[in-house]
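User: Study the chain.
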Amino acid sequence: MSSSPEPDAPPAPRAPVMIEEIIAVACMVVLVLLTLINVVIRYFTDESFAATEEVSISLMVVMTVAGACAAAARDRHIRIEYFYETGSAARRKRLALLSAAVTCVFFVVLSALSARVVWDEYRYEETTMALGLPRWWFTVWVPAMCLVLALRAAAVARRVRRGLMLPGADPEAGGDR
């Protein structure tokens, strides 16, 4: 017996999806710890550790985009399944290509716009209210991760277009990592 994958299995993406999952989990762990520390400090001192809110908001944004990257790489974004699954394979392929293209374009535009925000924060030396740190430290990750998400969507479109990925198939069966 050979240990090679099944011939019908879709190939794994070149960049492992686990990277985005690790980022999302790390953000969640830090969020839980910050919340726990805030609750303990508030309980024992009646003071708020409010500076953690700036870090928490930034971590939530990074966690959301990292999760969206993992979903895009697996072609698991929300879609209207009725129209998708009731059609022929050609219709599913067209809809998957359209979905990936729109996702890619949207996140390229979002990356450009958020990069401009980061540049303005850097140029005008904006600082956070509670910590007094440069604000761009917290927002520089958004344009970069939006570009990664756009690349993931483009990779899905390329795999669907080449027939290497069946739209709507279970990617876990094909070893998507």
Observations:
- Residues 1-7, 173-177 have pLDDT under 50 and may be disordered.
- The radius of gyration is 20 Å.
- The longest helix spans residues 89-123.
